[in-house]
Amino acid sequence: MMKKTLLWFLAVLTALAAMIYQRSTGPTYEFKGHIEHAGEKHKYELLRSHETTGGAKIELPYFEDSTYSATLHYKRYQTADSITTLDFQLDENALFVAQLPVQPAAGKMEYFVTGSIDGNEFNIPERGENNIVLRYKDPVSNYILVPHVTLMILAIIFGIRAGLSAAFDPETMRKWTAIAFSAMTLGGMILGPLVQKSAFGEYWTGFPLGGDFTDNKMLIMWIVWALALAIIGFKPKKKETVSKAAVLTAAVVMTVVYLIPHSMGGSTLDYDQVDQGIDPKEAITTGNR
After folding, report:
1. What is the full DSSP assignment across the chain?
2. Is residue 132 within 8 Å of 125, Cβ to Cβ?
3. Handedness of CA 227, 231, 235, 239 (dihedral sign)
4. In 10 A of CB 131, how many CB atoms?
């Protein structure tokens, strides 16, 4: 009992660590930092993903007891557009914001912020660093998104548990492998494309149709686990060496894949095509940042 409890603890801990790392390093994760004022550090989280229901509001901390100003500088991503500037203002909710213009799904805006507090200038990001890039997406129903996310969480937990079983508890590795593969198939290969369709208009943008890292990562994981399940079968074997190696390999591949930042190489609107009159829904590419 102690061994099984420990294996579950390690599986959940490893899965959570991999998922947190993946999400926190991806290109849609908030750009975080702080502004110093009166000897204190005030945090900000600037958006890098937003729904097409409206323009993204970029928010900064506000200091009413200071001579304070900030300006948002932005343009469409990967275009020769001139940079537009917009001053931050207090909105009806007393938030210090400047709003980016809404874009079609997969449309991206790059932006940076300059400002001054009591004569001390600041830049977000710092001078010399890349501008922040925000991508728009269409809303995804929670009836699709929540089961998708839940099943993918279960897939990595049970997948790592299967790998630990292969190393330390072979009698249970078939059960956990089957559960992990089932969760991955439903959550990643069925619900995943529905999420992609809702957000960006296409069911699949990975190999061989495109270069979407998320779809390609899903495909690699699914193939590796399908092979592992085919190798181990559903009945114990006299010699389990190959079976254990297959499941352990699948678990390692899954963990490595989850360490690749989420949403890399995802759908990106080609503004050159849009400017030529092509429908934005037909001008989406993949494989870019």
Report:
1. -HHHHHHHHHHHHHHHHHHHHHHHHSTTS-EEEEEEETTEEEEEEE-SEEETTSPPEEEE---TTS-EEEEEEEEETTS-PPPEEEE-EE-TTS-EEEEPPP--TT-EEEEEEEEEETTEEEEES-TTSPPEEEEEE----HHHHHHHHHHHHHHHHHHHHHHHHHHH-GGGHHHHHHHHHHHHIIIIIIHHHHHHHHHHS-S--STTT---HHHHHHHHHHHHHHHHHHHH-SS--S--HHHHHHHHHHHHHHHHHHTSPTTTT--EE-HHHHHTT--GGG-EE-S--
2. yes
3. negative
4. 18
- CB of 75 closer than 8 Å to CB of 84: yes
Q: Cα 244 vs. chain centroid, distance in angstroms?
A: 31
Q: How far apart (Å, rounded) are the C-alpha atoms in residues 203 and 267?
A: 12
Q: The dihedral of CA 14, 16, 20, 23: what is its sign?
A: positive
- The span from the CA of 58 to the CA of 63, in Å, is 16
pLDDT at res. 287: 62
138/144 Cα distance (integer angstroms): 13
pTM above 0.90, yes or no: no
Q: Which regions of the chain are under pLDDT 50? A: none
Q: What is the CATH number of domain 31-137?
A: 2.60.40.10
Count CB neighbours of 172 within 10 A: 16
Q: What pLDDT does 237 receive?
A: 86
User: Where are the chain's structural domains?
Assistant: 2-26+140-285, 31-137
Q: Tell me the two tokens of residue 134.
A: 């925000």
| Half-sphere exposure (Cβ direction) of 158: Cα atoms closer than 13 Å | 20
Which tens digits make up the pLDDT trace of 171-219?
999 999 999 999 999 999 999 999 999 999 999 888 888 778 888 899 9
What pLDDT does residue 104 have? 96
